[in-house]
Design brief:
Number of helices: 14
Strand order of the largest sheet: 1-2-3-4-5-7-9-10
Distance between the termini: 22 Å
Helix content: 40-55%
Strand content: 5-15%
Bound molecules: zinc ion
Number of strands: 10
Order of helices and strands: HHEHEHHEHEHEEHEEHHEHEHHH
Largest sheet: 8 strands, parallel, barrel
Length: 310
Amino acid sequence: MTTAGINGIAGVDSLRSVLAALEKEGAAIGHFNVADVVLLKAVIAAATETKLPVLIGASEGEREFLGVRQLAALAKSVREETGWPVFLNADHTHSLQKALEAAKAGFHSVGVDFSALPIDQNVARTKETVQAIKAVNAAILAEGEVGDIGTGSEIHETAPSEVGKLTTPEEARQFVEATGVDILAPAVGNRHGMLKSMVQGETRKHLDIERIAQIKGVAGVFLTLHGGSGTEDDHFRKAIAAGVNIVHINTELRVAWRQSLAESLARDSNEVVPYKILRPVVESVKQVVSSRLRLFHGQLVSPEAVGSAA
Ligand SMILES: [Zn+2]
């Protein structure tokens, strides 16, 4: 994004307009999950350091731990203090009640997820939830999910025996039309969590780029890519070029959080000052977030940048 673009975005308080502006530039916003204040600080520090807008996600479990209204208040105070476009998404929301709770707390978007249900029930319950949250806040963005992208942003020992069902373009078109979602989360080769071999950097996830382009062509809405952790960098670039607007990263942050916390604790067994122990953890997670934000923004796309990154 150009400096003018950043300045333009910084003053805009709408997630929809930020997504549209990024799309025009061939870029996507990074979505990073937080479960505690260390992760939250790391994501915000990365956004202000890279001067890029950011979407903070919290699943039902993460929201329960941090507090729905407490997280919303923290994010709001950061926006007010810094003027930076920091947005909040209620990730993987499995009930109408939890969706309403997040909408009332001031979240900018709600990821409605009834994808485990048969398609007709998924459509009916997503539609009902979209209408309910838009009655609370007409500007809120509603996301719906169709297809199988697995569960659990954690380290998996082995790959699932069966490949999850990928979303077809026709299914995507019908789902969007029937539910009224603003954002669609398709299954396009992405999967939640990381295999051990991915954490060790030996293997990478690959995406079905052609399918993304086909879905984008008929869905007519923003696309979000869940389960981005461990994906090949070049596949991220191609997926964004094909129409992905939001990229979710969670497991990579959790891995950095745990590893750096273990290192920090091991450094001095007599240290008991929380902020001294946790400061390196914030720094370590921030580095992961910053590098992902830059990648999703195409800052490594220029040939010389790709060459130096290789
Ligand atoms: Zn997800």
